[in-house]
Design goal:
Elements: E1 2-8, H1 14-21, E2 26-32, E3 39-55, E4 58-63, H2 66-79, E5 87-91, H3 101-104, H4 111-119, E6 133-137, E7 161-173, E8 178-185, H5 191-206, E9 223-225, H6 229-245, E10 257-259, H7 264-274, E11 279-284, E12 289-294, E13 299-302, E14 307-310, H8 329-342
Antiparallel strand pairs: 1-8, 2-3, 2-11, 3-4, 3-7, 4-5, 6-7, 7-8, 9-10, 11-12, 13-14
Length: 343
């Protein structure tokens, strides 16, 4: 693998740049400080070379560019699986005999396809983001490790995960006011072509003089809901009874509201404006657009130090400790009870 790195002038308006590049198999990840609302980093995948799709226990990897086709051949050799119909299909078998939760994590699973992206590349990239993969998981991905209730086919049409491997990636550091445009080249034959792509991106970025201007779309009045008020109230009352019986101590009940989104990028712009968050994303696939923002990071992993950080989410408090800093189990239990009572 050859890492191509192009320094670029600072890009203060990543969304305006993404608007020029928006097409299937692209994405924009952004981050902002919770208190100051100042943006910290933006990652813009301008072009993907591989796509990985997981459905249940089957992962299908397809190339999106000739450069990605070379990487697909590398993965074929790594997984010892032939390419058929321009795709690499990996099948993983769930071992239902293993009950130990810790051992389950070490069993072969569709996640091995993602790990293989990095293990198969023998030459370490010069830049930590040159070999870059990003995507989305569905909640049902857990079904490979846990026995979850089966949903009707029409209630669950999403893939278990969709991931991309970047051919061109723009990294913007808003704190340092710097930008880099990266290219992942898997064959010397494509080095000149990808280098030109980076130059074209650099020129395009130079011409972005102002922020994204949202479009005004005709407001949709049709709103549908997965569960009406009457049915939702019945479910709430039913769960309250289960709490009284002692069967459960806490429940999170939800329902879905649906409205047509005519201008996804403009909707994301307003979401960013009203709710700048540490975790913001806009992903455009060939079949869907997904965007959102969250004030929480459930887990952060640093590969260089091999450390994981767990961030408190809504509904957590400090442990109950005595003056010596040891856990006071009476105080700890009381604080847990207060949490359950408050929420």
């Amino acid at each position: 693998m050859v890492s191509l790195i192009e320094k670029a002038p600072y890009i203060p308006y990543p969304l305006a740049l993404y608007e020029k590049l928006e097409q299937p198999h692209t994405l924009l990840f952004e981050s902002a400080e919770i208190e100051s609302k100042a943006h910290t980093k933006s990652l813009l995948m301008a072009k993907a070379c591989l796509k990985l799709v997981c459905n249940h226990n089957i992962v299908t990897i397809t190339s999106l560019t000739p450069n990605g086709g070379v990487f697909l051949q590398t993965l074929s050799a790594f997984f010892k699986t032939p390419i058929q119909d321009n795709a690499l299909t990996l099948i993983y078998t769930k071992d239902k005999k293993i009950q130990d939760e810790f051992l389950k994590l070490f069993e072969s699973s569709p996640f091995d396809a993602l790990r293989g992206l990095f293990k198969s590349v023998k030459t370490k990239p010069k830049h930590p983001f040159t070999l870059f993969s990003a995507g989305v998981f569905s909640f049902e991905m857990l079904n490979f490790f846990e026995d979850l209730p089966h949903l009707k086919a029409n209630d669950n049409t999403a893939n278990d995960f969709i991931f991309y491997v970047a051919q061109n990636l723009i990294v913007i550091d808003h704190k340092e006011k710097s930008a880099e445009i990266l290219g992942a080249c898997f064959d010397e034959r494509f080095k000149t072509e990808i280098a030109k792509e980076l130059q074209d991106l650099k020129e395009l970025a130079k011409n972005i003089k102002g922020d994204f201007i949202p479009k005004k779309a005709k407001q949709s009045t049709g709103v549908s809901v997965s569960c009406d008020d009457s049915e939702f109230e019945k479910r709430v009352l039913s769960l309250q009874e289960e709490i009284k019986k002692g069967e459960i101590f806490q429940a999170v009940l939800s329902r879905s509201f649906y409205m047509e989104c005519l201008e996804g990028l403009s909707a994301y712009y307003h979401l960013k404006l009203t709710n700048p968050s540490p975790y913001m994303f806009y992903i455009k696939d060939s079949d869907f657009i997904l965007f959102g923002a969250s004030p929480e990071s459930a887990l952060k992993y640093n590969a260089l130090t091999n450390t994981a950080e767990i961030y408190p989410i809504a509904g957590t408090r400090l442990r109950g400790k005595d003056k010596q800093g040891n856990i006071d189990y009476d105080l700890d239990s009381k604080m847990e009870f207060d949490l359950q009572y408050d929420y």
